[in-house]
Amino acid sequence: MAYQAFYRVYRPQTFREVSGQTHVKRTLQNALEANKTTHAYLFSGPRGTGKTSMARIFAKALNCEHAVAGEPCNECAHCKEINEGKSNDVFEYDAASNSRVEDMREMLEFIDRAPSYGMRYKIYIIDEVHMLSTSAFNALLKTLEEPPAHVVFVLATTEPHKIPATIISRTQRFDFKRLSSSDLVERMKIVLEDIDLDYDERALKVIAQAAAGGMRDALSMLDQVVSFSESEVTLEDALFVTGSIGQDVFYDLAQSLAQKDIANVLAMLEKLMSEGKDAVRLSEDFITFFRDLLLIQTAPDLEELLELASTDEKFKELANSFSMDTLYTYIDILSKTQQEMRFSLHSKVYLETALLKMVQSGVSRVTTAENPAGMPEVAALQQQVNELQQLVLQMQKGGMMPQQPQASEPKEKSPRRSRQRSNEFQVQVGRIQEVMKRATRGDLRKIQEIWPNAVAQIPKSQAALLTDAQPVASSNDAFVLQFKEDIYCQIAADNPQFMQQFPQVIAGMTGTMYDIVFIPEQRWLKLREEFFSHYQKSKLQQTTEENPSTSGEEAEENVQSMLVEEQQASANPVVDEAMKLFGEDFVEVVED
User: Fold this and answer.
1) Helix (H, G, I), strand (E, B) or coil at 74
2) Which residues form the AAA+ ATPase domain (predicted)?
3) Are 258 and 362 in contact (CB under 8 A)?
4) Which residues pair with 322 in a beta bridge?
5) What is the β-pairing status of strands 470-474 and 478-483?
6) DSSP letter, residue 238
7) How many CB atoms lie within 10 A of CB 260?
């Protein structure tokens, strides 16, 4: 007899042999025992999950002469005929190649005839039923609604959403699930033990991971690996045949990411691509590997759930070298990149970009002592701190500095220290007051006019800080930048790239290197009110001294109106632009 593939030779013949799908097996067996089977069933699910095999076993169980607990015996004449495909009462139709209405009418032509050879039911198994045409579905509908008592339909499909609702509503629907890796591995073990071939269990896990929950795919790949191997199914053979990569490659790449060695990361990716690996498949494998590292961190006892990593000590150390937030970030970056790669012809570029993002965003928990070569800056800073501490101690011993109070002595908390412990941004009040003293409407308008273009020229990550920020006062060499909250002021002040690049951008557009002073909105409103109040009093006093004939109330009113006008104009660039276009006599400011 000609050679047959594993998935054909080892097709399950009883419910017990079917891997997984416990919910389907139990429901069908209970219905068989209670004699409560219905006239139509719909089996839906991914390819290679046992839909057609389950339909054949169900057909045997319906007609078996010696069925026990819903299980066919596979020994009686009816079971043997069905197993050999010779039964005249079990019909299998492929809707993909017989989708026309004429084919459906031909199939249903003799449906009213009773089953032959003592069988109780005629069973019609229609595979890939979603491929039927609309006319064919209409021809099937009436028969499916009121079939003869001796007829049972089993419809199988991988795309149930393409089947009309009128068909689905007349069937009992069973959704088949993807098989777990452990189910696939156990079935492959049975096959290899039956043919008496040694194997490495890690090789079977690689095949199961590549099969993505499909038993037929797993057995087909196992068949190919067995043909490629000599006397044993090895891990190297499985990796080569399936196109997967080994644990050591993942380990080395993750270590390079932890050490931020981008050159080695890109070199490893280039090597994998030159070996013919697919970029989309690599991204899937990377996601699975970092998911395994998360499992090792959070649930080390669930070893059976690991797919690409193992519970070896080196993988535990590798998993603990990353924070959980970093692993979540890696998985998120790879997932988004994977979606983008599906619609691009340059998938390798997307994967390289993703790895660069991972290097820049990843925060490793490897300490300086564990990895001094990977963090030289930290080591250098630590050394400088130690030297400064030694210098301070020497100066104290020599009397050049006062001794620090002992830890047991109570320390009085100064207001400044209390402020530093709080989350408030330390506002440079004196500097802002100096800017306000020299501020003019023209200088502020100059900054406001170039503001949108200046923000557009900086990177998006920096521009995001300025979404709600605006200049509120400006002199000829400095301006005050108002933020909504203290936290945004602090983030901007702590960003050295922003502090260096943004003034240069403004200088390129104005010709002046401005000093930028940050302040939160609430602090600015309070500080401006205090400044205007102080300015009002000093201006009132000066006006009274210069013109004694002016009454105090009149002078106060003049100063107040001038300040209100200046405050409104400086706070609203739209008013300035309107005055520039139409003149002050034609513009009236109305407060909402």
Assistant:
1) coil
2) 37-180
3) yes
4) 364
5) antiparallel
6) H
7) 15
Contact 506, 478 (CB under 8 A): no
Residue 120 CB neighbour total at 10 angstroms: 15
CA nearest neighbour of 352 among 284, 261, 249, 262: 262
What is the rounded CA–CA span in Å between residue 500 and residue 507? 11
Distance CA 88, CA 223 (A): 33
Residue 583 belongs to what H/E stretch? none
DSSP string, 378-425: HHHHHHHHHHHHHHHHHHHHTTSSPPPPPTTSPPPPPHHHHHHHSS--
Determine the distance from the C-alpha atom of residue 271 to the mean position of all C-alpha atoms in its chain, rounded to a whole number.
26
Residues in the chain: 592
Report the C-alpha gap between 240 and 288 in whole angstroms: 19
Cα 167 from Cα 155, distance rounded (Å): 10
> How do the pLDDT tens digits run along the chain, 592 residues long?
567 888 888 888 889 888 888 899 999 999 998 888 899 999 999 888 889 999 999 999 988 888 888 888 888 888 888 888 888 888 899 998 888 999 889 888 888 888 877 778 889 999 999 999 999 999 899 888 888 889 999 999 999 999 999 999 999 999 999 888 888 999 999 999 988 888 888 888 888 888 888 899 899 999 989 988 878 888 888 888 887 777 788 888 888 888 888 888 888 888 888 887 788 888 888 888 888 888 888 887 777 677 777 777 888 888 888 888 888 888 899 888 888 887 777 788 888 888 888 888 754 444 434 444 444 555 566 666 666 666 555 555 554 444 444 444 444 444 444 444 445 778 888 888 888 888 888 888 888 888 888 888 888 777 777 877 888 888 888 888 888 888 888 888 888 778 878 888 888 888 888 888 888 888 888 888 887 777 666 665 665 555 555 444 444 444 344 344 444 444 455 666 666 555 555 556 665 5
DSSP, res 322: B
**Residues 181, 308 contacting (CB under 8 angstroms):** no
Question: Closest Cα partner for 349 from 255, 250, 283, 251?
Answer: 283
User: Residue 381 corresponds to which tokens in the numbers above?
Assistant: 């800073």
d(CA 504, CA 516): 11
If residue 359 lies in a helix (H) or strand (E), which one and from where to where? helix 347-361
Extended beta strands in 390-529, E state: 470-474, 478-483, 515-520
User: What is the C-alpha to C-alpha distance for residues 536 and 574, in angstroms, rounded to an integer?
Assistant: 26
- Residue 549, judged by CB atoms within 10 A of its CB (0-12, 13-18, 19+), counts as exposed
